[in-house]
Amino acid sequence: MSDSFEVIVIGSGPAGYVCAIRCAQLGLKTAVIEQNVGSNDQPQLGGTCLNVGCIPSKALLDSSHRYAEAAGHLSDHGIGISDVTLDIASMMARKEKIVSQLTGGVSGLLKANGITVITGTATLNAGRQVAVASADGSSQTYTADHVVLAAGSEPAAIPPAPVNGDRVVDSTGALCFEAVPQRLGVIGAGVIGLELGSVWARLGAEVVMLEAMDQFLPNMDEQIAAESGKIFAKQGLDIRLGARVTGVSVSDDGVDVTYSQGDASETERFDRLIVAVGRSPRTTGLFSADSGVTVDERGFIFVNDYCATEAPGVWAVGDIVRGPMLAHKGSEEGVMVAERIHGKSAQLNYDVIPSIIYTHPEVAAVGKTEQELKAEGVDYKAGTFPFAAIGRALASGETEGMVKILSDADSDQILGAHVVGPSAADLVQQIVIAIEMAASTEDLQLMVFGHPTMSEAVHEAALAVDGRAIHMVNRPKR
Ligand code: FAD
Ligand code: AMP
Q1: Segment 247-277, tens digit of pLDDT
Q2: What is the pLDDT of residues 277-286, one digit of tens each?
């Protein structure tokens, strides 16, 4: 096997493997280096997303949603189910099967595209030399015209709450509890905390979420965040804001968590505790001091708008660089870098990246929030429409939440969309397409939406921007 490639990608998560496939499609001789090894001694591809992130969390969210429906919510439909049982081992086995199907799929795709997969831990040295240390202690060096760093991220830690893999776990541990904890504490009411807290709450745990910030989901549109908070509280998630965890003490009987809230100091006992306080870029040992790669003030690899680092021929994509830590953001960066390596002038519109919280109902957003537009002094119009007035939502018993659309007051161009409610992720994706096509709310107003669909809430919210929604009484416009 040759030790020289046109492109070496370090990391096989959604940023790395997508970049490698696009490089291979463009005819570049490409290798992927992955340090994760599976139980079959083969490289375990797919990164955080496929192994311990997006996919297993969604598998458990779907399973737990079905359980909660069967156990409690189907009586409205006239369906009675007696003796609903829960088999956590089977639920976990299903999740694992989905993970291995997808990671195996990535392996097949890399093979079919003629990409070389190298197992081991890579370090980038000067002159785009990549040293790969194998588990058996051996080491080999490869060179490439271009190196793409896609080493991803790992759960962030906080000193008061060290993860011990037993009572105190990170997101990875929370994806494989063998039983439902009676009382579950979650530090951090961000995306990951909300998703994992929801899984175990639906399966029967009493969940308390401790969030240091006073504001719930501060990056979301304030109106949608407030609405979501009310829905989650009704579901039984006890979300305590302004609650900063200061100490954790583990005993045979449980885990005592001390937190400050205002001037008070409180302690709560839980059976298990999930630490979900964000993620950190995985840069340790990834590059040598003379590689030319630098990091920014937050520890992310420094890149320009096109994901080029300060070292010639070295690129970085995904969670390891600035921007939202989202699989689809990393994948599209990977495609952009492959195209640039091939000499094309590809770019990524960072203003139009959707973000989704996969609770039930989902919370999803794209573009500007109302508070951002206010802060930027933009003259804007806003339209909201509640799912309670959507026939399909009523038929499905999914009436909570709303669609909100924001547009420029002069040009009418759509600037943002925010949804909490059924199929929020898919509805926001419609607005992603609209914004990319430079659509106005008038464009949406003039389009025909199928009936009865959840999408009609998008149509009505676009009409509401101009005070002309049909199925509600419009408030007078500013
Ligand atoms: P990663 O997926 O972290 O992959 C990096 C890979 O590089 C890993 O396989 C690692 O082993 C390998 N690696 C690292 N260092 C080296 C080295 N030196 N040598 C060789 N290999 C190395 N995002 C979404 O968009 N939607 C979601 O629904 C979603 N849900 C999530 C749920 C959870 C519980 C978590 C934890 C995350 C979730 N995310 C979600 C975030 C998403 O998983 C990440 O944004 C995404 O995986 C980042 O992709 P990446 O390729 O940059 O890095
Ligand atoms: P995210 O980055 O979306 O995954 O959210 C992580 C959340 O954890 C943030 O909202 C942080 O405010 C919160 N957080 C961080 N440290 C603490 C702490 N010591 N106690 C409580 N919450 C915390």
Answers
A1: 999 999 999 999 999 999 999 999 999 999 9
A2: 999 999 999 9
CA contacts within 13 A on the Cβ side of 325:
21
Query: Exactly one of 146, 451, 459, 471 is catalytic; which is it?
Result: 451
- SS3 of 240, please? strand
Tell me how far apart the alpha carbons of residues 37 and 231 are, in angstroms, rounded to a whole number: 41
Closest-CA residue to 382 (of 396, 393, 367): 367
Ligand 2 lined by 190 (C-beta under 6 Å): yes
Q: Per CATH, which fold does 168-277 belong to? A: FAD/NAD(P)-binding domain (3.50.50)
pLDDT score of 478 more than 80: no
Angle between helical axes of 88-112 and 54-68 (0-180°, round to 10): 150
Instruction: Answer yes or no: is the C-beta of 274 below 6 A from any ligand 2 atom.
Output: no
Q: Which fold has domain 361-465?
A: Enolase-like; domain 1 (3.30.390)
pLDDT in tens, 190-247: 999 999 999 999 999 999 999 999 999 999 999 999 999 999 999 999 999 999 999 9
Residue 451 catalytic?
Answer: yes
Domain 4-155+280-350 fold: FAD/NAD(P)-binding domain (3.50.50)
End-to-end CA distance of the chain: 69
